Amino acid sequence: MGEQSKVYINKVSKYLPNKAVSNEDMEKFLGEVNGVPSKAKRIVLRSNGIKKRYYAIDENGDFTHTNAELTNEAVKALFDDDFTQDDMELLSCGTSSPDQLVPSHAAMVHGHLANKNMELNSTSGVCCAGMGALKFGFLSVKSGNSNNAICTGSERSSVRMISDYYSSEIEKLKALEEKPIIAFKKDFLRWMLSDGAGAFLLENKPNKKGVSLRLDWMEGFSYAHELEACMYAGGEKQEDGSLKPWSNYKPKEWLTESIFSLKQDVKILDEHIVVKATESIRLAFERNDKTASDIDYFLPHISSYYFEDKLKKGIKDEGLAIPEKSWFTNLADVGNVGSASIYIMLEELMNSGKLKKGEKIVLFVPESGRFSYSISHLTVC
After folding, report:
1. Are 290 and 361 in contact (CB under 8 A)?
2. Residue 156 in domain
């Protein structure tokens, strides 16, 4: 182990499967629950402002890619004559939607690469999983543990959103002569999420030609010690706010209760997500003596444009003078890709040709799982 190295993001890539899906065509791919168009869809889409998204599903309803395959495609896009797949030393992958419980997501991606022996890391969670993967790679290169690292964020959320996921619950409701609709906490997320993957190449030296992004620092915050779960899957929320895990349900209940569907407690989401977001940004800036006013590009991962003005107001109320002109997002065009969103945003910005040496970039990722936040600072080199 030598002295600490500087860390540079030298290449960025993304992979979005198939053709973009418009708002009008979403149910053609995801299906209608009980054969009835969703009543929540129009309301949710009006609030979130998303116009297009991508699904690893074809028009026949068949899956075209696994999560590991999506990630593999993004990773392969990083390779060229200057950096080949045999040059990589570490693969760090984050996702909230792995293809299976075990083996790990990184191991499955490595299996697709089929290149050579290397160190692996897999991070779980929700949107911060991608930033967790990035931090592991950052610390590995910074400490001298490796000369490079490939870090990824990816999601195949569509598998949790297809109508078949809810059919057993609908049949149960019919049998009980209840109105056969899915609760809003389950239905509204069907119109929020997208599939895709992004990848970064981190190295201990900047590019000889072109732009590099020096990764200056990363900070993370969790408020699980004081707040209950907000977004969850593989369990059901109890009246006291605790989660009853899937393993405590009988197998037949996994289907009749839609246990593995993705759910969100929208009441506590609206109450806490922005408050804790602005607190986290302030703490990160204080720890690193960061001046908010010199940010050239602020990349916030927002799940919906509904939260954009709320976050701007919260940042202003916190006394953080982040220039409004610095805000950069591509949510409307690619959708909410969870842990991959920040990768896909930075890929667009880095490959835009707009960046100038010395400019400052801040990445900000909130996660409503149990309210976690990740903030990173980059300098264009």
Report:
1. no
2. yes
Determine which of 73-87, 175-189, 280-294 has the lowest per-residue pLDDT on average. 175-189
d(CA 152, CA 75): 8
Q: Kindly state whether residues 220 and 90 are assigned to the same domain.
A: no
Structural domain range at position 160 = 8-209
**Residue 180: its pLDDT value, please?**
42
Q: What is the pLDDT of residue 185?
A: 53
DSSP 286-341: HHTT--GGG-SEEEE--S-GGGHHHHHHHHHHTT----GGGB---HHHH-B-GGGH
Distance between CA atoms of residues 122 and 151, nearest Å: 10
Nearest to 56 by CA among 158, 153, 127, 130: 158
Q: Yes or no: say if 199 and 12 are a contact pair by the CB < 8 Å rule.
A: yes
Query: Same domain for 117 and 244?
Result: no
* Same-domain status, 295 and 376: yes
Which one, of 122, 125, 97, lies nearest residue 368 by Cα? 125
Same domain? 257 vs 289: yes
Number of CB atoms found within 10 A of residue 47's CB: 15
- Reply yes or no on whether the pLDDT at 160 is more than 90: no
132-165 burial, b if ≥16 CB within 10 A, otherwise e? bbbbbbbbbbbeebbbbbbbbbbbbbbbbbbbeb
Tell me the residue ranges of DSSP E strands in 16-74.
21-22, 52-53
Answer yes or no: is pLDDT of 96 > 50.
Answer: yes
Instruction: Single out the residue of 254, 261, 333 nearest to residue 97, CA to CA.
Output: 261
Per-residue model confidence as pLDDT tens digits over 240-286: 999 999 999 999 998 888 888 888 898 899 999 999 999 999 999 99
| 173 in the same domain as 284 | no
What digits encode the pLDDT tens for the residues 294-349? 999 999 999 999 999 999 999 999 999 899 999 999 999 999 999 999 999 999 99
What is the C-alpha to C-alpha distance for residues 298 and 208, in angstroms, rounded to an integer? 26
- Least confident range from 51-65, 107-121, 255-269: namely 255-269
Mapped onto helix, strand or coil, the DSSP state of residue 371 is: coil
